[in-house]
Write a structure and sequence with these properties.
Radius of gyration: 23 Å
CATH class of the largest domain: Alpha Beta
Number of helices: 15
Largest sheet: 5 strands, parallel
CATH superfamily of the largest domain: SGNH hydrolase
Strand order of the largest sheet: 4-3-5-8-9
Helix content: 40-55%
Shape: globular
CATH architecture of the largest domain: 3-Layer(aba) Sandwich
Distance between the termini: 87 Å
Length: 372
């Protein structure tokens, strides 16, 4: 084959590839490919993280686009069917959390906040302040904003398994949010990590093909699970155990445990000044293992210790605190239903129903109704 023929062959292959990719892009635009959920810039001038407001979204999982849910990002940049008003005759109950409360995978009426809004509509507004990847430290910022900017009279904060370590800078997983760092005085202090979306990322987020590869096929996650990546990035388990010593669970090293406990202390230190509500106006609901057999199998492990420490601290300081596991266990024994979205792990509609029932059956809401 001559040089000219090779050049024409290469051009033909290139054109064929481009045409195939273009055809895939067109086809995928008609399918429920998962949206990119673009975060608005987070800066010192705009320090409250939220998504780009007033946009529709689509959620789906896997190569075959299962578990489809469509919804909207409201005027405040949160996934909620309501637009938020800064002033209203009804008092506001704010629900704060991460992707479990953001709940892009569940229809809004079936979410914890949607169910509370319906059940309490005669007495309260219920707004949610949440986004994926947010840790415990970020919840303080949203709770403060709910009180200062929207006049929230009470706050419910949902706590999940990765909230403790990811609130500390060494373990943070998200590019934005407020995170605890060493303050130089032996104390942890909140610090804003600013976020500005790159032009390239903005352009790529508009491509259905790119979103399918990244969000549905999870190519980045696949790369991180390859043996070569794990070998290069992970500390050998034997070395970790040798360094840790003492009473440390096998799913966490000593530093992770120590910093997670420190995060809990710093969080409760900061709650009064940051949120500005009395303890009886703040309720913590703490997620768990959902099923009795899972709780038994994980007794004494990292999350089990963290959630117990958090609940004990909250109760000692006079805050409302609900351990959700007894409610999940009771529902499972009675109905045998799953609480997670398949291939995703977040609460499904049943999980949100259980959490809502736990809140509504407790004395927190009843106390709010009695107070002016």
């Amino acid at each position: 084959m001559t040089t000219r023929e090779r050049a024409f062959a290469s051009i033909a292959v290139l054109l064929g590839t481009v045409a195939s990719l273009a055809a895939l892009e067109v086809v995928l635009r008609f399918l429920p490919v998962r949206s990119g959920f673009r975060m608005a810039p987070v800066t010192a001038q705009a320090p409250v993280a939220h998504l780009e407001p007033n946009e529709p979204y689509t959620f789906s999982t896997g190569w075959n686009l299962e578990n489809v849910n469509r919804g909207r990002i409201n005027n405040a940049g949160f996934i909620n069917d309501q637009d938020y008003r800064r002033q209203d005759a009804k008092p506001l109950l704010a629900v704060v959390g991460d992707s479990f409360i953001e709940a892009r995978m569940v229809a809004y009426p079936d979410t914890l906040q949607g169910r509370l809004a319906k059940a309490l509509e005669k007495d309260f507004r219920v707004y949610s302040f949440a986004a994926g990847g947010a840790p415990l430290s970020q919840y303080l910022i949203w709770a403060r904003s709910a009180v200062r900017d929207y006049g929230a009279a009470a706050v419910i904060i949902n706590v999940v398994l990765n909230d403790f370590d990811e609130s500390y800078v060494a373990y943070r997983m998200s590019p934005a949010y407020w995170i605890y760092v060493d303050g130089g005085d032996g104390q942890l202090r909140l610090q804003l990590f600013e976020y500005r979306r790159s032009t390239l990322r903005t352009i790529l987020s508009k491509s259905a093909l790119v979103r399918y590869l990244v969000n549905n096929l999870k190519l980045e996650h696949f790369v991180r699970t390859l043996p070569l990546w794990r070998t290069a990035s992970a500390r050998p388990a034997a070395a970790a155990r040798a360094e840790d010593g003492g009473d440390v669970p096998d799913d966490a090293d000593a530093r992770r445990m120590r910093m997670s406990y420190a995060v809990i202390e710093a969080f409760f230190r900061d709650v009064p000044a940051m949120i500005g509500l009395p303890p009886d106006r703040i309720l913590f609901i703490v997620d768990g293992y959902h099923y009795p057999q899972s709780a038994a199998a994980n007794a004494g492990r990292y999350f089990d210790r963290m959630r117990r420490a958090f609940l004990a601290k909250a109760e000692a300081l006079g805050y409302g605190a609900i351990d959700l596991d007894p409610y999940f266990f009771a529902h499972y024994r009675k109905h045998g239903e799953s609480f997670e979205v398949p291939d995703d792990g977040h609460w499904n509609a049943v999980g949100h129903e259980v959490a809502a029932e736990a809140v509504l059956s407790g004395d927190f809401v009843q106390r709010l109704r009695r107070q002016p």
